[in-house]
Amino acid sequence: MATAGLTIAGSLASCAPTYFAKYSIDGNKIKISKSEFVYLKGEVKKERDFILVQDKSQKFPICLKKENDTYTALLMMCTHRSCELNVGGRVYTCPCHGSEFDSHGDVITGPAQTSLKSFKTESDENHIYIYI
């Protein structure tokens, strides 16, 4: 079982810090507690729109986005020249050549022409699973 966790500041459109979630490996899937999306701001509970997972099986982080009760997991690697993407709002952007991808990983603006790699996700009452 592998576990990782780290919080760092990032330059995102939302100005929120980028959060690297704690997780475990369960066979061929990454297991993440739904509580990883929750944080305290003062005494108020807030919810993150996305979290990042840095598993050693992947060269780049996986971004796990939550929209309502649906989870989308995308590899943060631009399909143009393999640069690591930034995420902010509902758009993934490539700092190298300007490609943009929507929240489902589809190309909005090139030069990239191929969608981002996505991973199957499932969830239960307490966890989200990313199949790797």
Description:
The protein has 132 residues and is mainly beta. The chain has a domain at 6-77 and 116-131. Helix content is 0%, strand content 45%. It is built from no helices and 16 strands. A hairpin with a 2-residue loop joins strand 8 (62-67) and strand 9.
Short overview:
It contains no helices and 16 strands. By secondary structure, the protein is mostly beta strands.
Strand and helix layout:
Layout: E1 6-8, E2 18-20, E3 24-26, E4 29-33, E5 38-41, E6 44-47, E7 50-53, E8 62-67, E9 70-75, E10 86-88, E11 91-93, E12 100-101, E13 107-109, E14 118-119, E15 121-123, E16 127-131
Antiparallel strand pairs: 1-2, 3-4, 4-16, 5-6, 7-8, 8-9, 9-14, 10-11, 11-12, 12-13, 15-16
| Helical content band | under 10%
Number of beta-strand segments: 16
How large, in whole angstroms, is the Cα Rg?
14 Å
The major pleated sheet works out as:
4 strands, antiparallel
Counting H and I runs of at least 4 residues, what is the number of helices?
Answer: 0
Strand content: 35-45%
Given helix and strand content, the structural type is mainly beta
Task: List its traits.
disordered N terminus; mainly beta; 4-stranded antiparallel β-sheet; about 130 residues
